[in-house]
Amino acid sequence: MTILESINGTLDVNSFINFVNSPSIQDTLFPIKLVFILFAAFFFCVVVYFYVESTYLQYQFLEDVTEFFSWRAYGFRDLERRLKNIMKNAASGTERGYKLAVVEAEEFLYKTLEDAGYEGETFEDLITSAKRRIRFNEKEILVDHTVRNSIVYDVNYRLDTTVAKKILADYESLIKNIAIP
Q1: Residue 150 CB coordination number (10 Å)
Q2: Which of 74, 78, 95, 160 would disulfide-bridge 63, Cβ 3.0–4.6 Å?
Q3: What pTM does this model have?
Q4: Are residues 163 and 135 part of one domain?
């Protein structure tokens, strides 16, 4: 390419720029520009609306702020409140209270396992699925589950307080391990 050809190419580009910047073309393109500006504003408003209405901000921003100010994992306060309510039943010191606490603790554990994404149709399946990712004594939890089943299905089952306290401690520790990674 010679110098003369490059100057002609520059002249072609300059003439195109002058043509596009000419007032007659700008007046013709003005309505099209307005339409595109309105579309852009509309879609920007739609994005902002759905961003605010979604739970994305809650999960990305509010959880971090809550964790920062409370110095605890997000959801830990609700977990503690639920466990405290379960332990109130055991605090009564009666066999009935311990039975109720054991049953509620296992229900809470079951819900926690499901919420954490472990798969299984039965409690045993969920425990087996959780065992692959979390370290805990699976046999103890399954023995505790057997005691819980005895409480539910055998009206005359006698629950020892030391056994009940151990079961509640096992469930509480597993719930905290699952809910707070």
Answers
A1: 15
A2: 74
A3: 0.58
A4: yes
